[in-house]
Amino acid sequence: MYQILTKEMLTPNICRMKVSAQRLAAAAQPGQFLIVRADEKGERIPLTISDYDAKEGTVTIVTQKIGASSSDIIAHEPGEAFSDVVGPLGNASDFCSMPAEELAGQRYVFIAGGVGTAPVYPQVKWLHEHNVPVDVIVGARNKDLLIYVEEFRSVADNLYICTDDGSEGFHGVGTAMLEKLVAEGRKYTQAVAIGPMIMMKFSTLTCKKLGIPIIVSLNSLMVDGTGMCGACRVTVGGKTRFACVEGPEFDGYEVDFDEAMRRQGQYKAEEAEANEHHVCKIGRGK
Questions:
Q1: Quick one: pLDDT at residue 286?
Q2: Dihedral angle sign, alpha carbons of residues 153, 253, 115, 76
Q3: Cα distance between the two ends of the chain
Q4: Among candidate residues 54, 56, 60, 51, the one with its CA nearest the CA of residue 15
Q5: What are the helix and strand counts (H, E) for the chain?
Q6: What is the DSSP letter of 247?
Q7: Which of 62, 80, 168, 252 could form a disulfide with 118 if both were Cys (CB 3.0 to 4.6 A apart)?
Q8: Strand, coil or helix: 185
């Protein structure tokens, strides 16, 4: 019984929920994901873990309303429960298994965009708890679409807000902010980008120009989360990889982003049709 304890709309289309899941919370690590089914007939939806608390026995998920299934998840209210929550799945972030002496010499910069900002939080929190310096660049189209700002203020060494329209923070995209920081003398040993595929592509190109290694998360490609459907196939380093079982994080330099973006759009027609005929049944008859 995966009861929803709290629910908060971070933006009109992005919802954060804290879910009771004792065993999942005890095993979760940054970078991993869960599979959620809203009800018995619901679709399996992969959602990256946005926080976890082993003592409290809870995991936090953030869902963006895109299609019929994500709408059904968001329609749940506190006190109700999801039919299934499976996980943690996927591989934890590389730094989780890094020797202490190697970790001590790192300085990370995270570039976060859109709903991808949420899964950045547990990674930054983990590094903060292990005394690793971390800067975070959060980008959005405007200030009303920014999420997790206050959470990052408590765990990041420095937080840089970027908006496309200049309504808050730096007027421009996250990659321009990164170039500005490096030009001012900031040095990083590792970058991590999570967000829209196009953002991760240009973050990788920028980091390559600046000589900074970069990790990207391909969680947005996943469908069934087990490697069976093949939807998350992507070319990494010239080889076919599966984001759900071999990732979701990969070396950004090696990812074929153009192929990944084509694959990401392959189900748009089906999603549009499902939305057109969707009737949310969550909460009816209660």
A1: 38
A2: negative
A3: 17
A4: 60
A5: 10, 16
A6: -
A7: 62
A8: coil
